[in-house]
Amino acid sequence: METLPLFFSLAAVVFAYSIWFHFLARKLTGPRVWPLVGSLPLLFMNRRRIHDWIAGNLRATGGSATYQTCTIALPFLARKQGFYTFTCHPKNIEHILRTRFDNYPKGATWQAAFHDLLEQGIFNSDGKTWLIQRKTAALEFTTRTLRIAMARWVNRTIKNRLWCILDKAANEKESVDLQDLLLRLTFENICGLTFGKDPQTLSPDLPENPFATAFDTAAETTMYRLLYPGFLWRLKKILGIGEEKRLKSSLKIKRDVNGSFFTSDVLQRIALNFVLAGRDTSSVALSWFFRLIMNHPEVEQKIINEISTVLRDTRGPDHNKWLQEALSFDEADRLVYLKEALTETLRSYPSDPQDFKYVVHDDVLPDGTFVPSGSTVTYSILSIGRTKTIWGEDCMEFRPERWLSQEGDKFEPPKDIYKFVAFNAGPRTCLGKDLAYLQMKSVAYAVLLRYRLSLVPGHRVEQKMSLTLFMKNGLRVYLQPRALA
Ligand code: HEM
After folding, report:
1. Over the stretch 65-91, which tens digit does the pLDDT of each residue have?
2. Which of 399, 433, 460 is the last residue of a domain?
3. Closest Cα partner for 158 from 367, 383, 20, 324?
4. Does the residue 415 lie in any domain?
5. Whether 210 and 341 share a structural domain
6. CA distances (Å), origin 93, targets 65, 87, 362
7. pLDDT tens-digit profile of 19-31?
8. Closest CA to 287 of 168, 165, 167, 464
9. Which of 257, 386, 427, 440 is packed most tightly, with the most Cβ within 10 A?
């Protein structure tokens, strides 16, 4: 007898939930959602190609470039932690990054996910904690001294290390993993710049670098914390399983290595944030750049012509002089087409493919999308560059010329600067942009003027699922010495 009321109560709950879910699902505009788990099953199925999956979902909106979904289909949570707005609409991005900056901090979810890795460093803080670090760092970044220091570290590494390794590989007809070499190079530069110390990981025997490996694992596993509902990673952390187990052990290695490398906790914290900022981003951008160059010999030739013109002017006609010393500061400044090619690379392969923001108060985005307080807005930087309504019919083509001014003599960003946010924009814009261009130009020159690259047959270039757009299997190439005209 008692089971009957229970049955009716349950039936009423299921009925009420079904009605509620029906209305929720009608409002959502993204991939299919299921009761309770929302779009989690699809997210899980696509976890190894998450950036492309999000880009595909945004394309499927037919040009509106925004969709909404939920990963926890339960009353209350479905409009808070479980609710996600994905967008690549430049006006929305401007609104989030600049106009209503205070309404879209990184937020507690992001900070909790990253706390184990970055603590409260510049990348993982909001409000006053962020502002103080930003102001201090901004002062440093505007000085010419820092640019000179960067040029010195880059040139030293190129001359004393990179060229030795590449020459040896070219002579012995051995392949190299260019991504690995670039990561080592940028790691040395950023350590040199931040601590005045050189970890010497770019030496001919390519020693294992426990810090760098641990850092990669930690960054990769932290991304999973952001993708799934918070209670999942917390549960895994308590149980010590899956990605959380890997994260724990990599953080331990990181601390041990840091213990002897850095001097104080505070310095360590600041430093780690700068390593994240300055190591992976430039090397990953360069890896995609070299990949694109291998597929576009006409762009490669233009770059070689430009570098040759500048060096003929500054160093005379003797080719040996072109190859003896790395680029000077002023030579790098004159390489306009190279800057266009690097920027075009970042348009299609932004080092940070997406970013997450927390919504403090209910708001309406410029395209009319309502975003509830407590939910998350994710803007997909990768999708912006691959959307026809934003970059035109040829958005999938690699065309450095699109960055050339109408007069044809200088680099020109788009009128709507929120069409290109690979370096972020607004108050949190990248502080190291100029340093990054200097470093990337120097490395591009150092590799391309000496060698022609060819991909090792059968090597598959694939994206790795991490916060940074690494190549999963690296970039295996052969090098042939280049004959200069
Ligand atoms: C191609 C190279 C680079 C790219 C694509 C890039 C991109 C970015 C992006 C997207 C952000 C915003 C991150 C966020 O808010 O979550 C950022 C911030 C930042 N970047 Fe870069 N970056 C590059 C190189 C560098 C380098 C070489 C340095 C330093 C030497 C640097 C220093 C910083 C700093 C300090 C911030 C924090 C700004 C803040 O939160 O106020 N970046 N960068």
Report:
1. 999 999 989 998 888 888 999 999 999
2. 399
3. 324
4. no
5. yes
6. 11, 8, 16
7. 999 999 999 999 9
8. 464
9. 440
Residue 256, pLDDT > 60, answer no
- 327/448 same-domain check: yes
Query: 196 or 30: whose pLDDT is higher?
Result: 30
Which residues does 483 contact at the CB level (< 8 Å), separation at least 6? none
70 assigned ligand-binding residue: no
Judgement on whether residues 285 and 196 belong to the same structural domain of the protein: yes
Answer for the pair 17, 35: CB distance below 8 angstroms, yes or no: yes
| pTM, two decimal places | 0.90
DSSP letter at 484 equals P
In a domain, residue 86? The reply is yes
What is the spatial order of strands in the sheet that 376-380 belongs to?
A: 66-70, 83-87, 376-380, 354-358
What order do you get walking across the sheet with 476-481 strand by strand? 176-177, 476-481, 451-455
State the chain's mean pLDDT as an integer. 89
For a substitution probing ligand 1, which of 286, 430, 440, 469 has the most ligand atoms within 8 Å of its CB?
A: 430
Measured in angstroms, how far is the CA atom of residue 464 from the centroid of ligand 1? Answer: 20
Shared domain for 288 and 176, answered yes or no, is: yes
Q: Is residue 290 part of a domain?
A: yes
Asked whether the predicted pLDDT for residue 17 surpasses 50, the reply is: yes
Domain enclosing residue 7, as ranges = 1-99+355-399
Task: Clarify whether residues 93 and 132 are in a common domain.
Answer: no
Same domain as 77, residue 137:
no
Q: Find the residues whose C-beta lies inside 6 A of ligand 1.
A: 122-123, 134, 137, 274, 277-278, 281-282, 285, 346, 351-352, 355, 422-424, 428, 430-432, 435-436
- How far away, in angstroms, is 241 Cα from ligand 1 center? 32
Residue 275's pLDDT is: 74
Q: What is the CATH number of the domain that holds 170?
A: 1.10.630.10
> For residue range 263-318, what is the model confidence (pLDDT) as tens digits?
446 556 666 777 777 778 999 999 999 999 999 999 999 999 999 999 999 999 99
Claim to verify: residue 342 and residue 362 sit in the same structural domain: no
The structural domain count of the chain equals 2
Q: Which residue's CA is the closest to the ligand 1 atom numbered 42? A: 432
CA of 439 to the centre of ligand 1 (A): 14
Task: Looking at the structure, tell me whether residues 181 and 272 fall in a common domain.
Answer: yes
Stretch 464-470: mean pLDDT: 86
pLDDT band per the 50, 70, 90 thresholds, residue 255: low
pLDDT of residue 226: 74
Task: Give domain status of residue 408, yes or no.
Answer: no
